[in-house]
Amino acid sequence: MAVYFFYGDEDFNIDTEIERMRSKLNPDFISMSYQVLDNPNYQTLIQALRTPPMMFGDMLIVINAEKYFAGNKNYFDDKELDDIEDALSTNPDGLNIVFSVKLPRNEGKKLDSRRKLYKILSKTNSKEFPTFKTYKTAEIAGWIKARGKTKDISFKDDAIELFIEHIGNNLREFDGEMDKLKLMAYPEKIITKQMVEEICISNQDLFNFTELIMRGEKDRALLEFKKLLDKKHPLELLSAIQTMLRKWIVLKTKSSSSPAELSRLTGMHEFVVKQTIQKLRNTALSDLVKLKSNLFDVEYKIKSAESVDMISEVECAIIR
Questions:
Q1: What are 179-235's pLDDT values in tens digits?
Q2: SS3 of 279, please?
Q3: Which of the two residues, 1 and 159, has the higher pLDDT score?
Q4: Where residue 9 sits, what CATH number does that domain have?
Q5: CA-CA distance, 258 to 264, in Å (whole number)?
Q6: Phi, psi at 102, each rounded to 5°
């Protein structure tokens, strides 16, 4: 039926679009009508592209193709590329093919448009999915409103403003928090600023908590940690802290870069970048790295079911 080429560094929007297409398949035969192939070799790819549709309705085959564009050499030779182009041009009715290429977030990487495979796929239904720039709050707000509509909820303007202030441009995190907000609002369908304050952890909350650790005020840090647990599961909290620490480490190691470049690397607004650099001026990079390592170790133990008491494990990581 059709061939699609989805690429960019906003993997959540790519996943959402693919899931939308998947939802249109016959649910009774989903195990046969939906396939995902990770960077298949030439023979497997050609076989997939020429798969005849079955009697149970349309098919959807997703080709995760990141490796096709990695490195300096072409993944396929010219003859193989010609065969791929021919197979795509004679795509059978009832078969949808999606080539998906997810790029690393906030690294500014682009696909090499000079490659023959890129030129072939760009002739299909191609669409780029870039991350929202942190300073384009109107675009992020528009996405929040549209995504909220799919969940049958709406946001007051000041709630959206605070929501963006807390999360930035991470659409996957927005989506997860919306599910919690919907439960909190039920049976109402309008999300207020107060609800956002109760559910979401702000960057300032995380900063206050981590700053106490850096100053050696471990007792106060543990009290702040217990407060944060009212809003987040320990693993969610660890993930949020790890993300924040990663950004801080970038700010410390790339301190000579411009605020605009640091904003691109971290996904933080330029104004927030400048504020954070000022707050971190007395914090040693080695301390940030040590804390991140400690928290990574306990996160691994929890996820691998080696932790007996996850909250105590996190507290021990904080005071080490």
A1: 989 998 999 999 999 899 877 776 667 777 777 776 767 788 788 888 777 777 777
A2: helix
A3: 159
A4: 3.40.50.300
A5: 10
A6: -100, 120
Assess whether 191 and 226 both reside in one domain: no
Rounded Cα distance, 271 and 259, in Å: 8
The residue range of the domain holding 310 is 203-319
Q: How far apart are CA 110 and CA 186, in angstroms?
A: 42
- Per-residue buried b or exposed e for 151-171, using 16+ beta carbons within 10 Å of the residue's own CB: eebebeeebbebbbbbbbbbb
Task: Note the pTM of the prediction, 2 decimals.
Answer: 0.72
The token pair at 94 is: 């009832």
Check residues 7 and 263 and name the one with the higher pLDDT. Answer: 7
| Stretch (H or E) spanning 297 | helix 285-303
* C-alpha to C-alpha distance for 136 and 148, rounded to whole angstroms: 19
Q: Do 207 and 192 belong together in one domain? A: no
Tell me, what DSSP letter sits at residue 73? S
Query: Which residues fall within 8 angstroms of residue 81, CB to CB, at 6 or more apart?
Result: 74, 116, 117, 120
Out of 95-109, 167-181, 188-202, 305-319, least confident range? 305-319
21/71 same-domain check = yes
63-93: per-residue pLDDT in tens? 999 999 988 788 999 999 999 999 998 888 8
Domain boundary among 153, 173, 199: 199
- Contact of 4 with 97, CB cutoff 8 Å: yes
67 and 43 both lie in a single domain: yes
Q: Please give the structure tokens belonging to residue 303.
A: 């996820």
Quote the number of domains for the chain: 3
The phi-psi region of residue 168 (left if phi > 0; otherwise alpha if psi is between -120 and 50; otherwise beta) is left
Q: What mean pLDDT comes out for the span 243-268?
A: 84
- Look up residue 225 and give its two tokens: 């940690």
Residue 247 is inside which H or E element, if any? Answer: helix 234-253
